[in-house]
Amino acid sequence: MSGPATRPWPARLVVLIPYAWLALLFLAPFVIVVKISLSQTALAQPPYLPVFDLSAGWEGLRDFVAQLSFDAYALLGSDWLYILSYLKSLEVAAISTLILLLIGYPMAYGIARSPRGLQPLLVMLVVLPFWTSFLIRVYAWVNILQRDGLLNTVLMKLSIVDQPAAWLASDTAIYIGVVYSYLPFMVLPLYATLEKMDQSLLEAAADLGCPRWKAFWQVTVPLSLPGIAAGALLCFIPICGEFVIPDLLGGSETLMIGQTLWTEFFANRDWPVASAIAVSLLALLLVPIVFYERLQQRAIEGGRSA
Amino acid sequence: MAGGFAAEKPALVRFDGVVKRFGALTAVDRVSLDIAQGEFFALLGPSGCGKTTLLRMLAGFETPSEGRILLDGEDISQVPPHKRPVNMMFQSYALFPHLNVEGNIGFGLRQEKIGKDEIAARVEEMLGLVRLKGYGKRRIDQLSGGQRQRVALARALIKHPRVLLLDEPLAALDKKLRAETQFELMELQKKLGTTFVIVTHDQEEAMIVADRIAVMDHGKLAQVAAPEEIYERPSSRWVADFIGEVTLIEGTLSQPDMLASALGPLRVDKGAAKVGDKVWLALRPEKVRLGAQRDVDGTFNALAGTVYEIGYRGDMSIYKVRMADRSLMKVALANSGGPPPFAADDVVWLSWPPAAGVVLTR
User: Fold this and answer.
1) CA separation for the pair A234, B292 (Å, rounded)
2) How far is Cα of residue B59 from the mean position of the Cα atoms in its chain?
3) Which residues of chain B neighbour A225 with C-beta distances below 8 Å?
4) CATH number, domain containing residue B314
5) Cα–Cα distance between A111 and A105 in angstroms, integer?
6) Residue A30 lies in a domain
7) Does residue B230 sit in the same domain as residue B325?
8) Which among A35, A127, A254, B224 has the fewest CB atoms less than 10 Å away?
9) Structural domain that includes position B12
10) What are the pLDDT digits (tens) for B293-340?
11) What digits encode the pLDDT tens for the residues A64-97?
12) A305·B82 Cβ contact <8 A
C-alpha cells in the first residue's frame, strides 16, 4: 500500500477538520434552507409546512417528501418583482465593479510603484477603514448624503449648487456606498499582482521600442489579469447579495435581491420564498465563482510548470 | 590607452567623460571610451564596479549625471530607451510570460508599422538563426534555460540593432552550456557584423569572446585593451590580479634591469619604470619553470623553495611554493601524464627569463 492509505490516522484527522467545518456550518444550514424553499407557508411555528417528524418513522418520511414542492421557485420565475430584483442586483454589482476597477487599478498601481519603504504604510491606509464597523461607516454616509448633510453644505458653500440636492435614497447613493465599502477588496489583490511584477519586463518593452503608455497595455495589464479577475470577483459576488448599503442609502423604486429577501422573510413571513431567493442567488453566483476557481487552478498549474 | 581596433575605424559608440551618481555613490566615474563598429567589446569587473550601470546608460535606462554618450556621432544621452537603435539581452532574460516564443521574438517589430506577414517571416528567420525552429508556439515556461537564453537573444536581434547589449547573458547557464554558447555568440557576431557589448564578471568569458576588454574597478576604467595585452601586459597590480593567477613580488628598481626584492636581486625588463622606483614584478604561474635542480641558463632568475600546497585542476596543477622570505609563489605545471613530479615539502627550483615578468609601477 502506498500514498494516502498509509498515512497515520492523526494526519487523516487533520484533513477531516476543514471538511467537518464545512459540513457543519455550510452544508447542514444550506440543506435546511433548500428544504424550507421546497415547503409551503403556513400560519404555524415554524411558519411553513411540512415539518419533518422523526417519530413518524418511514411512513412520515414518505408523507414529508410527498408534500415538498417547487411552488416557491415557480413564483420567483413568474413574478417580475423577483426577476427585476435579481437584474437590479446584477446591474448594481456590474457597474460598481467597473467603477471599482477604474478607481482601484490606478490606486494599486500607484502603491506598487511607490518607494518600497512607503508601501506597507499605503497598504495599511487602504485597510484602515476596516478598523471602524462597516455599519457605522454606512450610517456616516447617510449623514454625509442627507439633505442638510456634509456634501450639500459644502456644495452650497462653494456655490456649486444653489439649493440642496437629493443624494440620499438614490442609485447614486448606492454606488457611492458600495464603491467606498468595497474598494479595499479591489485594491489589495491588484496590488498583490502588480507588486510582484518583474520591472525588467517593462525595461525590455521600452528597449524593444515600446513607449511607456503602450507597455502599460501590452505588458502590465495582461500580466495583472489574475489580480483584475480576483478583485472583480471579490467585489462582484458580495455586492450581488448586498443588503445594508441599498437599504440605508438606496431608494424604494427597485429593490436589490437582498432587500427583497429581507422583506419576504421578516415582513411577509414567507420563509419558503425567502429561502428560494437565497438558493437561486447562490446558483446564480456559482457561475462566476466556478470561473474564478478555474482561473486560479490555471495560475497554480502555470506556476508549477515554470 | 585604446587598442589598435578603435584607432582604425571611427567610433560607433563614444562615452565622453561619463559620470553617474546614485545619491552619494558614484557608480561610474569619468569614463571615456570608444567602441568601434563591428567590435565585440566586453565590460569586465567585479560586482559593483559600474559595468552594468555603463551598459544601462547606453540602453537608456539611466541618464548620465555628467558627460555625453554618442552613437554615430550623435548625442543620445537624453534619448529615451524606446527611441534608441540599441537592443539589450537582459541577465534574467526578461521574457514576457504572457506571450509565446513567437510573441516574444516579434515584440519589437510589432511596435513599428510593419505588416503581419513580414513580422512572421522575420520571426521565422530568427528562430532559424538561434536554432529554435518549431518552438514558435511554445509557452516560455515550457522552455529550458538554454532555450530561453536563445529566445532572449533572438528578441534582441530581430530589429537589427546598431549595438547589441548583453548583460551577463550566460550567467544562468551551467558551465558546459556556457562554453558552447560563448562560441555560438562569437560566430553569430561574425555572421551579423553587429557591434556586441557584453557585461560580465567572468574574466575567462570576456577573454574568449571579446575583441577588446575594458576592465573596470570602482567606476573607473582600469585598462582598455585586447585580451592578450591585458593578460600579458596588465597596467596595474589590480588588473594583473583580477585577470588570471599571478604572483606579485615587491621591490625597488636598483639598476635599469635589476629589481632589489626580499628574495634577493632579480633580473627584469623595467618597462616604463625608472631606477629608484618602488615597483612590483608580476609573474604568471605558467611562465615559471619548476625543477629539482637549478636551471643551467645563467640569464634566468633562479630561486629555491619548498612545495607548500598543490592545487589539482585536471589539465594542470598550481603549485604554491614557500620561498626563503616565507612568501608564496604560484607555478603552473601541465599534467602531461605520469606520476606528479613533486610532492608537498619537496625542495624545488623556480626559474624564469627576465622577459617573463611585467614590472608594474602601481
Assistant:
1) 81
2) 20
3) 98
4) 2.40.50.140
5) 10
6) no
7) no
8) A127
9) 4-236
10) 887 777 788 888 888 988 888 888 888 998 888 888 899 888 887 777
11) 888 888 888 999 989 888 999 999 999 999 999 9
12) no
